[in-house]
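Quick one:
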Amino acid sequence: MSLITPDFGLLFWMVLIFGVVFFILAKAGFPIITGMVDKRSEAIEKSLKDAREIEEKMTRINEESREIMDQARREQNALIAEATETKKHIIEQAREQAREEAQKIVSDARIQISAEKESALRDVRKEVSLLSVAIAEKILRRELSSDKDLQDYVSTLLDEAEDVAPPEK
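Output:
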């Protein structure tokens, strides 16, 4: 017997054992293996389908988030513009109020200056009149040192007063 050529009996038993093992595998092993392969194939298909759905959902979510971000930017820009307008309005109101206050202060100052000027003029007039009376008194004392001069001067003043006074009714 040679190693390269098998005997007919050995070949028969090998084919018979192979057939029995193949039959047992075909009845018990292959259905389990193919079932597992089918289950695995279905699981892979389901996973791929879920992955596609998730990818579509992610795409929609990304688009929605972009839209939301764009909307938020537009609202932010609108709020910034509104705040800028409000700031300008407040500044303009403050300027106008400051102008009014300045005009009021200037007006009050003018009124006060005018009142103080009038008061100062009255004081000056009063001082001038007091000085005039004092000077006139000193001049009259000097000129009217005698009683006769005094009487003549009083008579002259009475005559002038009668000429200036309105006639009585």
